[in-house]
Amino acid sequence: MSSKLFLFDFDGVIADSLSFYEEFVGACLEQTGTPVIKTREEYLDLFDGNFYDSLHAKGVDTTAFNNTAIAIASEMDYSRIVPFHDLLPVICKLREHNTLLVISSNTSSTIRSFLSRYGFDGIFDDILGADFMLSKSKKINHAVEKWRAHKDLTYYVGDTTGDIKEGKAAGIRTVAATWGWHPRERLEKAKPDYIVDSPDDLLNI
User: Fewer CB in 10 Å around end: N or C, the chain?
Assistant: First the structure.
């Protein structure tokens, strides 16, 4: 069996963090003077494409946004973010014969801290967060090149239509996880290669 490269989104796939980041992003937008999000649906709409592109399209200075996020991060209660149930044993099983990375719009330091707190240490070979590149498709291409992976054996597991679009733009296989932020019906419209309803389903890809 050939080794595969699994690229995991963080928020909504590994971390159950929707309420936390809806509040966090709202606070950042308020402090930067661009409160463009009023409802959860408007927040989720930001992830129909690349998150930072969506903010930019709404007139948000993404550099100012990120600087504000860094400034107020210490005030947030990160203990509210927990892993999705039954995910860790599946990730450990996938790790036995494959290479696993995290590709996210979150910061690498936040992701590493979370992974360490919940026993995911040593599972992922790298974390490519917002501090590396903002474009997920570019991060995917970087990972494919660095790990010398075949694109038809590379899978991006995401939970939003934006994740699926960026995976397709990079020319790899896309996997939509329905336990995350966008519901199955919304994900289906992005035409992912696979749809998984539970972590165990990842073992059948």
Answer: N
User: What is the three-class DSSP state of 169?
Assistant: helix
162 φ/ψ sector (left φ>0, alpha ψ -120 to 50, else beta): alpha
Q: Distance between CA atoms of 87 and 159, rounded to whole angstroms?
A: 14
List the end-to-end C-alpha distance of the chain, in Å, as a whole number: 12
Answer with the one of 78, 101, 122 that is the final residue of a domain: 78
In terms of residue numbers, what domain contains 186? 5-16+82-204
> Structural domain tally of the chain?
2
Assigned token pair, 175 = 């996997």
**pLDDT tens-place values along the chain, 205 residues long:** 579 999 999 999 999 999 999 999 999 999 999 999 999 999 999 999 999 999 999 999 999 998 999 898 888 898 999 999 999 999 999 999 999 999 998 989 999 999 999 999 999 999 999 889 889 999 999 999 999 999 999 999 999 999 999 999 999 999 999 999 999 999 999 999 999 999 999 999 9
Q: Do 99 and 53 belong together in one domain?
A: no
